[in-house]
Amino acid sequence: MNDVDAREAITRAHHAEWARVVASLTRRFGDLDIAEEAAAEAFATAVRRWPADGVPPNPGAWLTTTANRKAIDRIRRESRRDDKHKEARMLHGDVPPEPLGAIDDDRLRLIFTCCHPALAMQTRVALTLRMVGGLTVPEIARAFLVRETALEQRITRAKAKIKAARIPYRVPSAEDLPTRVSGVLAVLYLVFNEGYLATGPDTDPVRHDLTAEAIRLTRLIRALLPDDGEVAGLLALMLLTEARRPARISAAGELVTLNEQDRGAWDADLIAEGHRLVRERLASGTAPGRYQILAAINAVHTSARDIRDTDWSQILALYDQLVRLDPSPIIALNRAIALAELDGPQVALAAVDRLEDKLAGYHAYHATRADLLRRLGRSRQSRAAYDKAIELAGNTAETAYLTRRRDQLR
């Protein structure tokens, strides 16, 4: 096997097996630091050995076994005298299992541990993206628009708090699930978004492993809470977004925006399931939450056979409703895009410019301004906005799209 084939196999294994390996080690050793470091060492060993020895028949089992050995080696090196009994139990696999929660799934246990309410929301998200999603610290820092050093410290403190507070590694009981699920949904949504359009320049522009895992875990939570509107809304939102993934990236590796996508390439089954969930929530008569409104917006988009058939007035009305629930600058930015279709680019540009103080470091803000300025014939200013968007964008497909649009200006 050559080095290229081995690297590709390791990349696939990392996408498919990272969460499983970390979750398995966390369950056995009860320590996130040990689990993460041993998993990383196992993958590093694969980088050294697989090119020479070949990819094992079951990469996940090989990585889990190797990681377990690495964890045991670390425990042996670091154990103190009063930890000897605990060490012996760990080395012989005689660790009493945690009591099962409402569902028995290692990765779901890991998510609920990372999303414990004792941690701040941003910390929960960062920890889950690292421990469950396998994202690097630079990738997460770009997603959060924070410094890498600050994010690294946040993750380190979170793992220490979980250990010191003896936060259990388990899914909560059925009675406790409703109060814990909102934080988990926020995490899963960000994991899905990272997969749908990755922030890192050195990763695949679209990571189906992350979107598929986010959808899988959201389905599990929906099975637990079938009457929770926001769980259903998030699942519908993910399905309707994932349905467009086959048309999202061109053969040349460039981002394809919604108005240019081949709608015949969209996944009709996912769209049908997403629409059914949206209709069920509308029929319930209960006031929708954030995810339900976002799902409804996507339902309007995916109902149109052509971009010219899009009901922009309905989309704008839904954004108006969403802004009342979530007055974030990113929601306001997305609302301005719909506003441009109804009231024109000049009105939308004024709305976008009011967001500069809050979104100056966000590439989509500058990309939106660049497009509106282009539509207004202000090519010099549009080019400058494209330059800023390209500078801030991390996704290779998005950078290629923005570069082409900039170069089309006179």
**Secondary structure tally: strands:** 0
Instruction: Bin the helical content.
Output: 55-70%
Largest sheet: none
The stretches of 5 or more residues where confidence is low (pLDDT under 50) are: 94-100
Overall number of domains? 4
The secondary structure category is mainly alpha
**Separate helix tally:** 20
Radius of gyration over alpha carbons?
23 Å
Q: List SSEs in N-to-C order.
A: HHHHHHHHHHHHHHHHHHHH
Mean pLDDT: 88
Judging from the principal axes of the Cα atoms, what is the shape?
globular
Map the helices and strands:
Blueprint: H1 3-29, H2 32-53, H3 59-78, H4 84-91, H5 106-114, H6 121-131, H7 137-144, H8 148-164, H9 177-196, H10 208-224, H11 229-242, H12 268-284, H13 290-303, H14 312-325, H15 329-343, H16 345-353, H17 356-359, H18 363-375, H19 379-392, H20 396-407
Helix pairs in contact: 1-2, 1-3, 1-5, 2-3, 6-7, 6-8, 6-9, 9-10, 9-11, 10-11, 11-12, 11-13, 12-13, 13-14, 14-15, 15-16, 16-18, 18-19, 19-20
